[in-house]
Hints:
By secondary structure, this protein is of the alpha/beta class. Helix content is 43%, strand content 17%.
Amino acid sequence: MVVDLRSDTVTKPTAAMRHAMAHAEVGDDVFGDDPTVNALEAKAAELAGKEAALFVTSGTMANQIAIRLHTQPGDEILMEAKAHPYNYEAGAAAAISGVQTRLIVTEDGLLTAEHVRSAIRPENVHFAPATLLCVEDTTNRGGGGVYPKARLAALTATAAELGLKTHLDGARVFNAVVASGIALHRRLEGFDTACFCLSKGLGAPVGSLLVGSAADMARARRIRKMMGGGMRQAGILAAAGLYALEHHVHRLADDHRRARMLAEGIEGHGFTVRAPETNIVYVSLPNAAAAQEALAEHGVRCIAVAADSLRLVTHLDVDDGGIARTIDAFGALAR
């Protein structure tokens, strides 16, 4: 049996989720009359403490709608150097919104208010004006790290002082919620917009939510249409998202526990492992590509994210037995 730890996007809908999808009431979402999509958006806005929400196909689309919403061509946006919108969204910010990105290098992927202050250039005709700060919580390449609430508050306060809009790329923000014990609406306080994925740790097959003010979400809906993201009987997908929000949030604690088990077990075989805060485990070793292939031969799938680094992500389709088999595979690799 293969243990697939490449990402928490590989999850399959559970039987109960499939049942919810099969029995979803649907309409035409572009006309605004799909009741299940409307219910999902209302639920997301309530959880996030925002006025409105928009159901979109992916986290990338949510991030790019937010960037387009808050900027004009020729603007500059700020984000940490390992952040998803810069590294894994196909150059979309430049292509779609015409903005340039100023990258802030940190060791752990977590920004501070001082980082933001230091990145702001004085007003000058030669410089692109900075208009948007993007924050990623949890941090993907930062090892699944969780922002302390006080640091999030400092970032949004500093951004407001500097005249920047703020967007939280919260693809795995519910992992941060569970790990910190701080509710979603509190973690999103001060952010103009935020998004979260349904198709990562929450286990839905498709979709993300963008949240913000009612005015911003009305504009975002037009941008979604412009990007080709209007969906019709999308309630079938939204039903999976509703089920995920109602049943799959608290169980993320199991993924975090298994990530710790996995890290400890791999470390026990002599490998260098970054201690996980949530569900992402990074392993350092000399030849990651070769290690990835060798592990695949032992039935464990993961990703070499650098020449010397493997990423393994726990999720609802990996049980304790899968963790044990993965640890054994690393044991074989060590011999």
